[in-house]
Predict the structure.
Amino acid sequence: MAGQAQLKAGIIGASGYTGADLIRLAACHPGLEITHLTAGKNAGAALGEVFPHLGGLDLPDLSATGDIDWTETDVVFCGLPHGTSQEVIAALPNHLKIIDLSADFRLRDADVYAEWYGHEHKARHLQKKAVYGLTEFYREDITGADLVACPGCYPTAALLLLLPLVAQNLIEVDDIVIDAKSGASGGGRSVKQSMLFCEVAEGMHPYGIAHHRHAPEIEQELSLAAARSLIVSFTPHLIPMNRGELLTTYVRLGKGVSAHDLRQALIGRYKQEPFVRVAAEGQVPETRHVRGSNTCLLGVFEDRVPGRAILVSTLDNLVKGSSGQALQNFNLMFGFDETCGLTQHPLFP
Amino acid sequence: MAGQAQLKAGIIGASGYTGADLIRLAACHPGLEITHLTAGKNAGAALGEVFPHLGGLDLPDLSATGDIDWTETDVVFCGLPHGTSQEVIAALPNHLKIIDLSADFRLRDADVYAEWYGHEHKARHLQKKAVYGLTEFYREDITGADLVACPGCYPTAALLLLLPLVAQNLIEVDDIVIDAKSGASGGGRSVKQSMLFCEVAEGMHPYGIAHHRHAPEIEQELSLAAARSLIVSFTPHLIPMNRGELLTTYVRLGKGVSAHDLRQALIGRYKQEPFVRVAAEGQVPETRHVRGSNTCLLGVFEDRVPGRAILVSTLDNLVKGSSGQALQNFNLMFGFDETCGLTQHPLFP
Amino acid sequence: MAGQAQLKAGIIGASGYTGADLIRLAACHPGLEITHLTAGKNAGAALGEVFPHLGGLDLPDLSATGDIDWTETDVVFCGLPHGTSQEVIAALPNHLKIIDLSADFRLRDADVYAEWYGHEHKARHLQKKAVYGLTEFYREDITGADLVACPGCYPTAALLLLLPLVAQNLIEVDDIVIDAKSGASGGGRSVKQSMLFCEVAEGMHPYGIAHHRHAPEIEQELSLAAARSLIVSFTPHLIPMNRGELLTTYVRLGKGVSAHDLRQALIGRYKQEPFVRVAAEGQVPETRHVRGSNTCLLGVFEDRVPGRAILVSTLDNLVKGSSGQALQNFNLMFGFDETCGLTQHPLFP
Amino acid sequence: MAGQAQLKAGIIGASGYTGADLIRLAACHPGLEITHLTAGKNAGAALGEVFPHLGGLDLPDLSATGDIDWTETDVVFCGLPHGTSQEVIAALPNHLKIIDLSADFRLRDADVYAEWYGHEHKARHLQKKAVYGLTEFYREDITGADLVACPGCYPTAALLLLLPLVAQNLIEVDDIVIDAKSGASGGGRSVKQSMLFCEVAEGMHPYGIAHHRHAPEIEQELSLAAARSLIVSFTPHLIPMNRGELLTTYVRLGKGVSAHDLRQALIGRYKQEPFVRVAAEGQVPETRHVRGSNTCLLGVFEDRVPGRAILVSTLDNLVKGSSGQALQNFNLMFGFDETCGLTQHPLFP
């Protein structure tokens, strides 16, 4: 890398778990130099004070977003909470490429956004031009995009599994039940009683039943693939683990379609993809098979109920479900090999 | 209790997790004296060697089952692994009342048993007279029974939730999807690589997809309630916690039926029951709400998908899902108040 | 219990983990009726809203402490955070017996209090008359006390282990190293980033190195036993578990004293005690041996280093380390059998 | 890397946790090609069957060690259990460089080995020529070695901390107490009841008190540094986490030495080292700060007890404590940059 020009990248909202994982990955990327890190109440701190595990890295201190001169910067990753990204991003200079990890630009429809987020979108012009960053399905758009809205963690796992099956008409689109499970890092690093160790450990429960904001995002993309509006049953659960996400999806097969057909369709769709893999026949995907890596692992099982199949998809919510996919999109946008900086193998145990 | 005669009880297979929890509860029961504890390879050991947490109790050492003179014993709890109970129980003297915690006598149909367990039942005469020990639904039969087959942990959680709804025709019986989650104690204390700490902690996964033996048990009882044969989609998952079980069940509502109707039906059905409770409106049942107690907690939620509801049931797999329900049945069989020895409140955190 | 008069008890600060565990235990106590529960920001809520696991109990809603008429109340348990108890307790009517679970009245010396807590004590007259509630060592005083200051969790584990050895001159009092480990419930239910699930799970670390406030409490009591001032090395660690505390204590043996002598001294000292037990020879105490129970388990091991021994003590920080010991003191103060309401066996797994 | 010759490496005993982590790291090393993987009862299996998280890698199936032709191989990593390595390694052809991760060649003294392992060493000639692979202290010897005995995980953490302090005479060598804590992966992947999830989760305990085999290894190296025989108090504890190890070490300072001096000595000793770091002043090392990385993090704290200090060292037992250090030694032996393949940053949360 010596002597080679690197792209200069800023990370806005670097003090959350998503920010930490983006730094972990980006710091190993040969073509990217982290020149700015910003935070809210942590502005002014050294990175090692906020994330001691990154204290050994030679990286800038955290600044306030407003204090930064972006002139020399090429790209900004934005990891702010939902609702705050849109205004911050709207205020950034035009020359910057933006990779947003929040939910602010994922929904294309202004009304759907307002319904689920409780307020009008504050940057409609950007919402319109944002590209949905599900890499395996929007490559061409992402390559030329100025603003990429990286998908939510649950939608990534759901869509990588379901989009090929819906697009090829292999399942009944009106009978999709998604039972989702996630580790606690999906809840972020902000302090809430419900996320205390003692409230999460040695127990589990569903949350956001019938009103989780990832549902309309899943429906937006599946509806496009089905060429008609559809609605899914989606219920997430909080599991006592740090990272990892697994969706068990219950579907009714299309006429004449078998579970084997579904499996073959997925194998066919992803055989060239570096980060999506169909588990070996009979092998059950587990979250620990992908921990720390950018891989999404899929599985297809025949149900005992005639005409039904049980589908499994798993990924690391902080990597393929967030920062890893963001870096994958960065690679696309700037002409790197898509796997650059993303080749770490899963950490087990 | 002083001076009062107590029933003399033996526990066969006392060295597993189910045995430990039965001892924990039974040792506090005022009308029961544990006179025999048996084990396989642990025969000869003091209880405190096998379960140091019970080392302070004044209880008999573990013996080999064959060495015991049952003359003075009134009742036997049997916590042996599936497949081994039937022969051991068949060999016990006739005067003993038997409360079996294994799966051996749960299925009434000899063919269904053989299909799921891979061999003919070895005690057909007992299989026929065994009473299914789901206390809240078989009270009368249990009261007079000689052999009670306590339900599996998943079936208990599923049936307490679904039986009233099916019996009252409130849901479509051909569209029941049960996504079940359990802590690791459900896997027992026998050593398997898949149950090592490092294989379970910081991760989760489904198992026994489309072939878990609790499915036919659930179907047997629901079919009876529906007065016709039905089949359910049932998928269990292993969660990194010791105890606790939670089922998220996805159902299609009957014509004109609302989620509210389901909730009311459950409230009505269980309002006199000491151990089954419908969570307050809007409150989501969590496994930690029932940890260590004999309570089953139910919840009903309207789905966003029209005509569908999301149901939640949770219990402690070792208590209401096993040893607690066994003791509840003991109380019925011997004329104690049904809550006797079972009034511990949940342990949280 | 019907018809029998029960003592009326209030619990101030009922919305923390200590409060929850006190309610769990007290609700089963035959001689005690919980008539008041108070909380700060949760005042006005039903108990089941704050602690759904206790939602099935018939108990009063949470009130503001200032709103309560204490006329009919006999005893108050106070579970407020350190520093706030003293003023609240000073304002209570004189007829009330007080059992305080905070640190406010544990240190007898006004200067030591001021040094460690950073402010003058605001109720010196009460500090002087408070009785240190280490039940096994202050029985007589507790019996007649108006105000009992229950020991901290670490001091309870340390003192039950060390007091007999120091009092009998069996160890060198100037060479005591206590390496303490605790589950996360010791940190309380108030929200702090450092206690989020993801900050605690899958990791561990020491905290409060050389300045934890339980050190002077341990030293106060050991100094009394040694009849001279002494100082201990005390370092606590946060372990990724909900409850449980274990101290590994490294000591130098007195001249001519063996590890066996230590063991015998402890056995002798505690042979009549219902809640302190020396583990069987060779058996290593584990936190799970006492989870949920009021037992403190001790172990003594010879070190390879000549003249040294390794001591282990373990208890459940919320029970014997807090609410259980408080209830044990209540029993003493009001003439109940000391084990009343405290006979639950440990919950394992 | 294309076109560049890579060293051909075999991994004997690849089916344990150490093997898995070595594969994880080695598969990313640009100068190493894994050409053989061996296992005992898993011989014949594909790697993905034994370790599904590595199923996406293009690596050889597992073979029986005896079936392999080593002619083309340059180096062998040996991850067999203690006691079995020595014979397997003795039977390997002479041209192979050996990096052993077991305990078989760590102790130089034949009598000490026999005393602690209960049998005579079966390859004395190799024991004599083996180099102790604590990289930061034996670089020159490792560079030219044919057989490197990688240190145990506890000794690595203990020695990196203590060797500079002992060598510079800064602490009293007769008063060293090491309280060690480790995650469950240190127990290996072989099945034992004591390592089941339910036996480890939600609890903790010491083990191997006063007879853990890492003690003589620590003493061997400290005695060399002190130029006289010494003995340490060493007690390990099992913590409910997968990976990570932390030692809290209690020492008495040398005359006129302060805790600050210790800190400065460590900073000075390691300032050029890529993998050993002294935590920022006041920052407490935590296992999660190093999870998945090859870093050892050290901390020094003044005790309240005059003349004493509290030292902390933490590392990932599977990386710097095992496979990472093995790869670091490989780099030294074959002329790579010492950090090659070891630059992953810690995984948090």
Remarks:
- The mean pLDDT of chain D is 96.
- The CA atoms of residues 153 and 317 of chain D lie 5 Å apart.
- Residues 7-151+320-334 of chain D form a domain with the Rossmann fold fold (CATH 3.40.50.720).
